[in-house]
Write a structure and sequence with these properties.
Nucleotidyltransferase, domain 5; alpha/beta; single chain; 2 domains
Length: 377
């Protein structure tokens, strides 16, 4: 009787590691090379990110089939450019790390297939990285912080508070039960006829608006815990817009700006209050050097960053947000997650699969339900 294939442990990680990272979970085609030779800080030798905004501009959002095709056409070129810019060849690498999920399955598959080919041709170890772990571990790449720390991962498809205790040890303290903030920003931008991606468009319009003009709801603030909801807030924006259009025969520029500012203020209030509660749980164990970090595309929003930083200061925790280029999807964070896994001795599955869904905290009850593809979050 033949036994099922088992995960195997990688060989002990050498002192210096050079890893190629590949990322293709949504609409950014990315490749990067990172070198880490302790006690020196990690070096991002190259980071190539090619967006697809123009390809999806006419559709009001990302079209999975178009995204997958673009990844398939450009990923190998991105890898070549990342290696050339880093001044290394495949022979200089110690491993390859690739996003294996969660994400749009066509794009994820494009990256996994390429990474498998490189690993097969070179004999290099191949690590399948959870895209969310890449974001969650980014503060260790940029600032070398120690475990444990509190992370708010806030992006177009995800929003959750995580206690990060190790390279593969994540405890979810709370998350969104419906839309993620980035998704809400995109939908609000579409409602208000602003260009995609919605986050930067809404933020730019909000700078010219009055955040106190419209009394938009703050869902779930009256309930205990760290879970969040943004769907009702988005609906409130829709109803307010419709009322303005009916009253004035259209949406005036200053009405749009005020609505964007009011929406953004509501999101900031929601995240700040839930962060306050998550920090209380985290600080209860009295970490020696408490750190509250935020990562993901929405972390680029300066208004939200300011609100979260104020909460961290009140709680007595250091606040950390990566550089803007490392907040949005990139392959440097995937390469770094691979390095973290190598140093932690994380087992390498013999035949990992591309996954559209992949919760970081597999012991937590699903926030958004589950099905044949697994838990959504």
């Amino acid at each position: 009787m033949t036994s099922a294939p088992q995960s195997h442990l990688p060989a002990p990680a050498p002192t210096a590691l050079t890893v190629l990272g590949i990322e293709s979970s949504c609409d950014d085609t990315a490749a990067a090379v990172i070198r880490h030779a302790p006690p020196e800080s990690p070096q991002i030798l190259s980071s190539i990110v090619w967006g697809q905004t123009e390809l999806h501009a006419g559709f009001g959002g990302v079209v999975p089939e178009i995204a997958a095709r673009a990844h398939a056409e450009k990923l190998d070129i991105a890898v070549e450019e990342a290696l050339a810019k880093a001044g290394v060849t495949l022979a200089d690498l110690d491993a390859v790390a690739v996003t294996a999920g969660p994400g749009l399955i066509g794009g994820v598959l494009s990256g996994v297939v390429l990474a498998r080919g490189i690993a097969a041709a070179t004999g290099l170890p191949l690590f399948g990285v959870n895209h969310l772990a890449g974001h969650a571990l980014t503060p260790r790449l940029t600032d070398g912080i120690s475990f444990p720390y509190l992370m708010l991962l806030v992006s177009g498809g995800h929003c959750q508070f995580l206690l990060v205790a190790g390279a593969d040890r994540f405890t979810r303290l709370g998350g969104t039960i419906d839309d993620a903030p980035g998704e809400a920003f995109d939908k609000v931008a579409k409602l208000l006829a602003l260009p995609q991606p919605g986050g930067p468009s809404v933020e730019a319009a909000a700078r010219e608006g009055n955040p106190k003009r419209f009394a938009l709801p703050r869902p779930l603030l009256d309930r205990p815990g760290c879970d969040m909801s943004f769907s009702g807030l988005k609906t409130a924006v829709l109803r307010t817009r419709d009322a303005l259009v009916t009253e004035h025969g259209g949406l005036r520029a200053h009405d749009r700006a005020d609505l964007c500012a009011s929406f953004q203020a509501a999101v900031a209030d929601l995240l700040a209050e839930k962060a306050r509660r998550a920090l209380a749980l985290y600080m209860a164990d009295a970490p020696a050097q408490p750190v509250f970090a935020v990562a993901g595309g929405v972390a680029a929003n300066q208004s939200l960053r300011g609100a979260l930083e104020a909460v961290a200061q009140q709680a007595g925790a250091a606040f950390l947000a990566p550089p803007l280029a490392l907040c949005t999807d990139n392959a440097a964070m995937i390469a770094w997650a691979g390095i973290e896994q190598m140093r932690a001795g994380t087992p390498i599955p013999p035949d990992f699969a591309a996954r559209p869904r992949w919760p970081l905290d597999t012991d937590a009850a699903p926030l958004l339900g589950s099905g044949k593809k697994g838990a959504k979050a």
